[in-house]
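Researcher: Here's the sequence for the chain we discussed earlier.
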Amino acid sequence: MLRKIRISLASVFLIGLTALFLDFTGTAHHWLSWMAKMQALEAVLALNAVVIALLVVLTLVFGRIYCSVICPLGVMQDLFGWLGKKAKKNRYSYSKEVKWLRYPVMAVFIIALLAGVGSLFELLAPYSAFGRIMTMIFQPLWKMGNNVLASIAEHYDSYAFYSVDVWMKSLPVLIIAALTLVILVVLAWRNGRTYCNTVCPVGTVLSFLSRFSWLRIHFDTDKCRNCSLCTKNCKAACIDYKNHTVDYSRCVVCGDCIESCKFGALRYDNAHLHKKAQDTSASKSDATKSDVDTSKRSFLLSSSLLATAALAQEKDKIFDGGYIDLEDKVAPERQTPLTPPGSLSVQNMAQHCTGCLLCVSECPNDVLRPSTDLMHLMQPVMSYERGHCRPECTRCSEVCPAGAIKPIDREEKSSIQIGHAVWIKKNCVPITDGVECGNCARHCPVGAIEMIPLDENDEESPTVPAVNEAVCIGCGACEYVCPARPYSAIYVEGHEVHRKI
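Model: Thanks. This is the structure I predict for it:
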């Protein structure tokens, strides 16, 4: 029963979080964004006290169920390990905790986090690794499948599907995601949860709490026949059948050992209460009570985890339009990177972002993409070659689970200045081609650009844009619609610290 409950709840989280990253319509996050906010590291960075307290209580009561139920990377590893068990049964063995690797990795992670070296701690964060895999590898495949359906539907005069652009957001990050996936598949296929118990910093932190969990998997030595099936089926390599011990710092309460034991020698309950019951009851009545207690505790486990679904869910929908597609441009070299409205500053983004890329996968305007800067690798930056940041869209701030992009409403977004437009005279069409333009001024949503004569004393002088930096919010509409190629005649330079105007 324990294993079935665990698999059912883990499936809900894995499917839900996968849908959250794959969805490009903006629908899934209204119902499933609470799952992202349940992730441990993201809750800590967002200072989400409710989620942190809930995860601590769950671990102290039930053990490391977070790793086998809530963490999508852990559940994905279980899936790969299950496929490996199909190829070869009873494949695992007991091994001692690898302290020489586990704790130095944890120390490096903490130092990188405090120092703001995002590219380092993002590589180790489990939810971030899952997000990169889904965003960079599986979402493009999902979109391609959608486009095939859209073509078929169009052939039959149906508009049930619509085509979307599939493009390379970042080749370096795609390579990192692919390597991460390959490593996880190999480790999980061969050795189960090696990553979780030797590399993952979240697992290491939870291991300190799980040592003191109230409910644990333990041996009934009177029933054990030392058949070793529990050890051979433990993907965490934490069960020593010879000494009848379980390393609770690594046990993720998956229930595989209980399922594999043919003699009922493994139990999931409070060991002290069980021993006391043995001293005061007959062995037969003890066995009956054990089954009842296990069922009750399994029900309690499922109820407590399902209760997390009561977290608040977002309800505002965003309907996106868009300008006509323009030829691809070359991104300008910005002195200061552009970060989304709500991120407050470049520094705040660097300190809180875990590089999960959920905001990138959810951006409906193709503005966000992973940074290729080594210090901030995989963190989102903005660029306007494929679209602009529409003032009415706040989706990235709605889905960010780590507090890197604070929630903002549409009115607030229109008053946040993330950068300002800069005019490049040598690229401007009225000067280079001698034709009238004014696209930037016509499409500026805040009226920060007006067209003025290049030479006030010449009536034949072409009109060129003049930018009011005090009004400009840096949305990039001017840069996106500028017809100059390959470089726009007007681009947005970012601000280190965002301002309110």
